[in-house]
Inverse folding.
């Protein structure tokens, strides 16, 4: 997706990252000037019934979830070729990059972040969603408001917590 492209009430500003289904762009609401993250899913990348279920499950789950440590889905915009997930923008990047730049987390930081991650996971399970962050890359870094972590991508697969713990240490 090109910078400057208009999608609904939003204009794309810059790429934030990519994944198997498409890209995530930083975007701005033209009416309110609010900055958001726009996950752009290419419909032609959804090739199997399993992939279709994955996308549908993620959207339905994100619509239900309201938790301070899970990124908020604000709107879904669909076209013939793409699905646009308009999400809360978290400006401070991935926890993985934070950990790499600081070499390691202190014990108190690791405890705080794990408590927040477990809180978000418990919340999902209370809602009947068996969702988990896919990796440390799907966990955003320090949020200025909560001084904590925010899960950005949820999937209905089992999370290997040992992998995340290993990456954090």
């Amino acid at each position: 997706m090109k910078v400057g492209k208009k999608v609904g009430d939003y204009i794309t500003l810059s790429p934030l990252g990519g994944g198997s289904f498409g890209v995530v762009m930083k975007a701005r609401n033209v009416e309110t000037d609010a900055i958001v993250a726009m996950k752009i899913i290419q419909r032609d990348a959804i090739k199997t019934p399993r992939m279709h279920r994955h996308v549908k499950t993620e959207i339905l789950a994100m619509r239900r979830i309201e938790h301070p440590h899970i990124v908020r889905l604000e709107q879904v915009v669909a076209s013939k070729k793409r699905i646009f997930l308009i999400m809360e923008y978290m400006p401070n990047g991935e926890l993985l990059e934070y950990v790499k730049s600081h070499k390691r987390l202190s014990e108190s930081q690791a405890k705080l972040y794990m408590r927040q991650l477990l809180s978000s996971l418990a919340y999902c399970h209370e809602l009947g969603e068996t969702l988990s962050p896919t990796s440390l890359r799907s966990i955003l870094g320090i949020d200025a408001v909560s001084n904590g972590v925010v899960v950005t991508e949820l999937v209905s697969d089992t999370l290997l917590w040992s992998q995340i713990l290993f990456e954090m240490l």
Observations:
- The two ends are 36 Å apart (CA to CA).
